Amino acid sequence: MIKNLKRSTLVEYLFQLVILILGVFLGILATEWSTEKNQKKFERDIMTGMRNELQVNLDYLESVQPRRLAFQKSLDSLSAALSQNDEVKKEVFYDQPFSKRIPNWPGFGKNVMDKSMFEVAKSGNILPNLKVELLQQLSKTYSFQNSIEDYGGTLRAEYFDIDSNTKYFEVINMMWIFMQEYFGSHYLLMEDYKKSIALIDKYYPPN
């Protein structure tokens, strides 16, 4: 009878231990599931924000294109006219108002394009979770964006170095660099924005 009691007590203890272990195990699973779910939500929220960021950048560049195209036409006409009059090109640039010397100048535009969500994705360790295709495209897009901004900073410095001794032809040459290299690179960046947006939609389709 004593043996049966001990056996019964042992079985009860073992049963309680199994229940305890099972409870702990299920608790761990629930915690991991909740953590993973929250991480996935955070990841989706970041990618949605990044998509919006890229779209804002794209919309901005598209909005300034008409002014830049008008400037290109003016620059073409101006260059054609000045090619027949070398003496005018050698004049001091500020002998006449800027708007007359360089008609339809659209300005540089934004100094820096939006990139805050990409930085959040890096600091939040989201990037390693992305598909390789998407990660490569986003890295390419934001790297290209940064290089254009750096180059734009260099051109701005040259622009603000224009003084009372700067010749007209020097400014005309500078404007061609703006048009062909700086503004031209924005066309390529717009295509990169579109590719990045398309890939985000592919892997994180709107709900």
Description:
The protein has helices at 2-82, 86-89, 98-101, 116-123, 132-159, 168-203. The protein has one domain (43-203). The chain has 207 residues and is mostly helical. The model has no long low-confidence stretch (mean pLDDT 86). It is rod-shaped, with a radius of gyration of 31 Å. It is built from 6 helices and no strands.
Compact overview of the structure:
The protein is built from six helices and no strands.
Distance between the termini: 66 Å
What's the β-strand tally?
A: 0
Helix tally? 6
Shape: rod-shaped
Task: Provide the number of structural domains.
Answer: 1
Q: Evaluate the radius of gyration.
A: 31 Å
Task: Round the mean pLDDT to the nearest integer and report it.
Answer: 86
Low-confidence residue ranges: none
Strand content of the residues, in percent?
under 5%
Oligomer: single chain
Share of residues in helices = over 70%
Helices and strands, in order, run as HHHHHH
Secondary-structure-based class equals mainly alpha
Strand count, sense and closure of the main sheet?
none
